[in-house]
Amino acid sequence: MSACDVVVIGGGLSGLVAAAAAAERDKKVVLIAKGVGAIAVGSGSIDVLGYEAGGKPVARPLAEMGKLPSNHPYARAGKQATAKAFEFFLDLCEKGGFPYSGSADVARWVPTAIGTLKPTCFLPRSMDPAPLEAAKAAVVVGFRGLKDYYPELIIRGLMQVPAYPKRFRTVIVDPEMAGRDVNALDIARWLDTESGRHACIEQMLTGIAPGNVVLVPPVLGTVPNYGVLEEFEKATTCKFIEITGMPPAITGLRLYDLLVSEIKKRGVRIVEHATVTRAVVDNGRCTAVVTHGVDRERTHPARSFILATGGFYSGGLEAGVGSAREPVFGLPVKVPESQSDWSNAFLLSGGAQPFARFGLDVDARLRPTDGSGKAVFENVYAVGRTLSGFDDAFEKSGNGVAVVTGYRAGTLVA
Amino acid sequence: MDSVTVVVIGGGATGTGILRDLSMRGVKTLLIERGDLASDASGRFHGLLHSGARYAVTDPRSAKECIEENAILRRIGKHCVEKTEGFFVRLEGDGEDYEGQWVAGCAAARIHAKRVDLKEARRLEPHLSRRAVSVFRVPDSAIDGFRLCWQNVASARRYGGEVRTYTEATGIERAGDRVVGVTVCDTLTGAVDSIGCDHVVNAAGSWVGRVASWAGIEVDVKPDRGVLIAFNHRFTNRVINRLRPPANGDIFVPHGPITVLGTTSSPVASADDNVPHVEEVLELLHNGTELFEDLPKYRILRAYAGARPLYSPGEGRAASRDFTILDHSTDGLRGLTSAAGGKLTSYRLMAEKTADVVCRELGVKAACRTAAEPMVEDPPRRLVTRARPFFPPYGLDLAASRLGAAFGPVVQGLQMHPEERRLICECEMVTLAEVESAAREPTTFNLGDIRRRTRMGMGTCQGAFCSLRAVGALVSHDLVADKDGKALIRDFLETRWKGIRPVLWGDQIREAEFQREVYAATLNLDGTAQR
């Protein structure tokens, strides 16, 4: 096997962006992926920084970053790289034919499947909430049998939002999947078909009128383009907004498909369904990683390695009683000795969870460090949720940190 | 002000058993419970229907009671009981003398304990420790405490018995030396009310002393805390007991797809604290690993804690698990009876003895019939056949038995409306039709109530998927008109979290991170301030 410049371990958002950024600099990149990572759990919107440590909403995320502690991944990546990372991301989406809009300067609030609003920054056009803010009334479309999406629950929540309309009505579309369990992916695949789209439009037209603002679950096709959205808008002359909801997140999977096709275009080789089981190290450098795939062990030598394996959910971190570890390189993960100090008394406690901030400490070049602050390997970089020092779920910063640190690592690798 | 003949305070096994017993004897009875039925000790134990063998050496009287009641409950409560049988296992290093005493004790209590060949024991329970040296078979069983309480109530209702949950007794009203009523408070609205009656039965479990104190009477019930761990899979088909003097962490009980390990024993000042601590969980795991060597690798669902109500001299496990019925006319107050001590396996007998005392005072001649009549009827065969296409094979019997009288209407709904068939809870295989049926019960106020009736949210994901779905479905059907859907989801996740927090490692921490990615990161349920 021929050696490459960079091996990226992990196929979630941070790994994909890192691979894209390295490839952009003409590096020869291999991306090793076990699965799609947490990108199918999140909504595909790029949340940057929604809440400050005390729980107050952040109106200007980019400006707020200056106040973050020095061990926060944004602070590690630096202001300049942060701004460039978002530009790079927007450019990737634009080139891939699925443009995102927004800015890290201003928070935008999008409706969710439980009728709350969530702060974010960058969105695909199909999730842009602006039309809702301008409307006097809105329609919520539901799908018969879709078990993770309940128009009445959404309406009950959104009615409380001062800037939103006070009049909502519901239209239920029957995808004729009765008798079996239906999720958003089933509906999205139905709308990938011409007959599905026609049937859906026909049924919606019985309840919506030209000019309406229409909220839908994230089901407007599985493909990263605005084909279904535009067809719906044209046929109904309504504005459609996709709402964020439960996994599987179709909007997240679209972003995944988009990024995979963009990095392939840039020559990145993707090794799928492979788990990195160990690293080969020599004198403070990593020389190769070893994967265990469906068939046999393979060795992947490279000059640099980017660790984008995620947190506990994705398997990038593992916890035992009173201890945690990073399984590929065996890098140190600091945790409180007493298990009782790992978490707050409430799951949604209005503050950061200690365990959510567990991860790898890194230096200014995103290289994991030992207890003394020195890089463990000169050519290993860590990105995304694997990093310590931030609670993405509380801050609403997960995808933002993934994009920024992924980009930064992609530009640092030799 | 309402008026009944008897008010029973406490909605655990004992209280619901007394309600059933008195109702069957024709006494107009109302049960009040400050939370949901079975929300304390009757739903917070290992779910073991004792054969009595555990008490064979230390507490022969309890042992004898257990085996008699065990036989009765398997008959009248067969829908709450899974007839698993049990093993008593002596490991290398456990005293041989105790085994001899135990065999003799079982014989004296007429508990059928039969030695099992070691090879056969390993064939039947392959995960059991290789260090086992003696194995005996006893008629232990698994029992669902939630269902037991509900089925007692279902039976009582057929005889006119009534229940008010989320109704806390706050005082006992008296006129001279007679009880004339109970002051109550609606714990959801705070509304205060008074219920007139001729007799009050104090069946408040660990809180018996508190209730008696309102009448100026001292009853010294000591709560004794027990912590348990629920594992994500069924790694034993039988109840497994360690054959040694009773100690912490030496009972395993299989329940449907999961296994429960218990318990610890420590005296506590108040039974209200039911949050388990990490240290208690680690002790259980340490001890349990001796019986199942791979235990540390098994995925945990959650830990939970309850309190045994001990009423006798002695501390903790050394105290007798016997019960005592206190007729307080000896204390100078007529019309108050306390049922103190006891344990779930003998709850029916305890209810019978209590009802005997009450009936004697009321002059009611009818005899107890609770041991003769099943709590719920079997669903008609034809109905089960009709239901078969709509339930997963494993879920059908579970649903039929947990729904009882509601099974017919639910099957009807599933037949007529295909979308009612969707699984709200995939872990425990609970359909929308069942969730709605539980939600329509007048005693349902939150997702926890639905959980205890249906098992929704008790499986692997611990509410990650089903809480949104359940609330969404309830809001759509206008079943929670006056409630905030977000608060319902949040409360549900937080009660689950109490049990996950002390076991936050391994796959449990993965699940917790996932839950937060969904409910905090994506749905912003935690954002205290929104725009």
Describe it.
The complex is a heterodimer of chains A (414) and B (531). Chain A is of the alpha/beta class and 414 residues long. Chain A folds into 2 domains: 258 residues, FAD/NAD(P)-binding domain, CATH 3.50.50.60; 131 residues, 3-Layer(aba) Sandwich (Rossmann fold). In chain A, the strands form 5 sheets. In chain A, strands 1, 2, 11, 12, 13, 14 and 17 form a 7-stranded mixed sheet that branches. The longest helix of chain A has 17 residues. The model of chain A has no long low-confidence stretch (mean pLDDT 95). Chain B is of the alpha+beta class and 531 residues long. Chain B has 3 domains: 157 residues, FAD/NAD(P)-binding domain, CATH 3.50.50.60; 150 residues, D-Amino Acid Oxidase, subunit A, domain 2 (D-Amino Acid Oxidase, Chain A, domain 2), CATH 3.30.9.10; 142 residues, no CATH class. In chain B, 35% of the residues lie in helices and 22% in strands. In chain B, the strands form 5 sheets. In chain B, strands 6, 7, 8, 15, 16, 17, 18, 19 and 20 form a 9-stranded mixed sheet that branches. In chain B, strands 10-3-2-14-22-21 form a 6-stranded mixed sheet, sandwiched between helices. Chain B starts with a strand and ends in a 9-residue tail after the last helix. In chain B, 59% of the residues are buried. Classes of the chains: A alpha/beta (414), B alpha+beta (531). At the A-B interface, strand 5, helix 6 and helix 11 of A face helix 14, helix 15 and helix 16 of B.
In short:
The complex is a heterodimer of chains A (414) and B (531). Helix content of chain A is 28%, strand content 21%. Chain A is built from twelve helices and 17 strands.
Name of the CATH superfamily of the largest domain in chain B: FAD/NAD(P)-binding domain
Largest sheet of chain B: 9 strands, mixed
Gap from first CA to last CA of chain B: 47 Å
Average of pLDDT of chain B:
93
Counted by DSSP, the helix tally of chain A is: 12
Gyration radius of chain B, rounded = 23 Å
CATH class of the largest domain in chain A: Alpha Beta
User: Low-confidence spans of chain A: pLDDT under 50, at least 5 residues?
Assistant: none
Assembly form of the protein: heterodimer
- Outline of chain A: globular
Identify the biggest protein-protein contact and residues per side: A-B, 68 and 54 residues
Sheet having the most strands of chain A: 7 strands, mixed
| Structural class label of chain A | alpha/beta
| Topology-level CATH name of the largest domain in chain A | FAD/NAD(P)-binding domain
How many beta-strand elements of chain B? 24
What is the share of helical residues of chain B? 25-40%
